[in-house]
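Tokens in:
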């Protein structure tokens, strides 16, 4: 229901074709694309292609025509359009006027069947949708057989799709290169370059254009953080310090399964979203939102008034993230915490101590990290204000004096060992939370 009104039946459209279609494009659509985007999206694509024969110059038709051709309500057609845009089969341009909007639908060339299997992202998606047996059959079959528009409002892949996990599937997909253009999120490769250099790994052999694109695609497909992509890269390095594509993909898949315990498939992203976009209203909420979305490197530079982050600091942060497995948002809270506590200097030992505590707490988001700090602070404050509550009831038995003295000494040592580090840490947390309220504006 939320897509009703995005376009109106009376609004016009015209169809354009970019390039030429491959000879057997219908086989690609029905056997390769359709398992991922569904029959309605494929039907819309074919309908728009055939509309080219009926167009007269620059005249437009209304969307009511599409509704009649496809026997579908307009909100279903709109969702099918988004799937075509997200998978790279359609670009949409909007022209606004006082009367009504008009749209130009530019059909994009689909991969020919043999070309399809040279794209890492699409092959991974198809594999998860149809399973290994069908995937292998299609791969073998197609390989042996084949050798002024307006403002661009095309939806991106991540705007339309997200991954979900119905069941677990193994992986065995051959690795190949590709040249296709995709709408995928980018990785901070300067950050990864620093990591490779610190390990004396030749950057130009690992961060090739083909490998960079594969990393970006796998990051989008498996919803990985940058530190997880870097971990997969290290796992997939060969003895010659080159990246083994197949091992890298399997490593990404293993990282995904370790978090979700299942395999991936595409689903409409809007099915799991609310209609209202949350906007933070308080300073604390704004800080949390920033820490959720910014990279650790950019956070360091922001806290340095735009100065470049040093290689030593980046190496330190990377080692802590990799060793303790902290997500980027939690790492951001930790960086902010340590900098405010140590007069804007990063202490590796101090950072590792707190990171190991937060890692054991299994924190995943900046909000959880902030809430965890507050909770621990409250517990520490309660112990500090009510020391009597921690004492055990006195025993009524008659106990020799020498036994009392020995137990008293043992209890003092044990209590110091158990509470010493926690008290120190949450005294610092208390100071941090006070500083947050004073310094947030300067760091946002």
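Residues out:
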């Amino acid at each position: 229901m939320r897509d009703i009104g995005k376009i109106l039946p009376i609004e016009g459209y015209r169809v354009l074709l970019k390039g030429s279609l491959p000879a057997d494009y219908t086989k690609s659509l029905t056997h390769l694309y359709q398992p991922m985007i569904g029959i309605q999206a494929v039907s819309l694509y074919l309908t728009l292609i055939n509309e080219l024969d009926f167009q007269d110059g620059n005249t437009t038709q209304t969307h009511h025509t599409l509704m009649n051709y496809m026997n579908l309500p307009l909100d279903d057609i709109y969702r099918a359009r988004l799937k075509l845009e997200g998978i790279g089969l359609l670009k949409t341009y909007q022209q606004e006027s006082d009367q009504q909007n008009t749209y130009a639908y530019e059909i994009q060339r689909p991969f020919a069947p043999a070309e399809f299997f040279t794209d890492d992202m699409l092959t991974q998606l198809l594999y998860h949708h149809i399973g290994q047996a069908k995937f292998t059959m299609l791969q073998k079959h197609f390989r042996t057989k084949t050798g002024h528009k307006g403002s661009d409002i095309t939806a991106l892949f991540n705007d339309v799709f997200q991954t979900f996990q119905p069941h677990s599937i193994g992986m065995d997909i051959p690795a190949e290169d590709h040249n296709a253009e995709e709408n995928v999120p980018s990785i901070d490769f300067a950050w990864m370059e620093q990591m490779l250099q610190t390990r004396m790994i030749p950057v130009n052999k690992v961060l090739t254009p083909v490998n960079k694109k594969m990393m970006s695609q796998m990051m989008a497909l498996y919803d990985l953080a940058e530190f997880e992509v870097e971990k997969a890269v290290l796992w997939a390095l060969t003895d010659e310090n080159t990246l083994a594509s197949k091992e890298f993909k399997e490593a990404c898949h293993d990282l995904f399964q370790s978090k979700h315990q299942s395999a991936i498939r595409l689903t409409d992203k809007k099915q799991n979203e609310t209609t209202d976009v949350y906007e933070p209203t308080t300073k604390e909420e704004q800080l949390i939102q920033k820490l959720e979305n910014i990279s650790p490197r950019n956070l360091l530079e922001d806290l340095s008034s735009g100065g470049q982050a040093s290689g030593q600091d980046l190496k330190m942060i990377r080692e802590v993230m990799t060793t303790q497995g902290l997500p980027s948002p939690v790492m951001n809270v930790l960086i902010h915490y340590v900098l405010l506590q140590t007069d804007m200097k990063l202490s590796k030992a101090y950072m590792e101590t707190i990171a190991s505590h937060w890692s054991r707490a299994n924190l995943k988001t900046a909000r959880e990290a902030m809430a965890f700090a507050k909770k621990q602070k409250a517990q520490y404050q309660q112990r500090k204000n009510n020391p009597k509550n921690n004492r055990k009831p006195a025993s009524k038995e008659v106990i020799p004096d020498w036994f009392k003295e020995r137990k008293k000494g043992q209890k003092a040592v044990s209590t110091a060992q158990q509470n010493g580090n926690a008290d120190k840490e949450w005294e610092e947390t208390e100071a941090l939370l006070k500083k947050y309220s004073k310094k947030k504006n300067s760091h946002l």
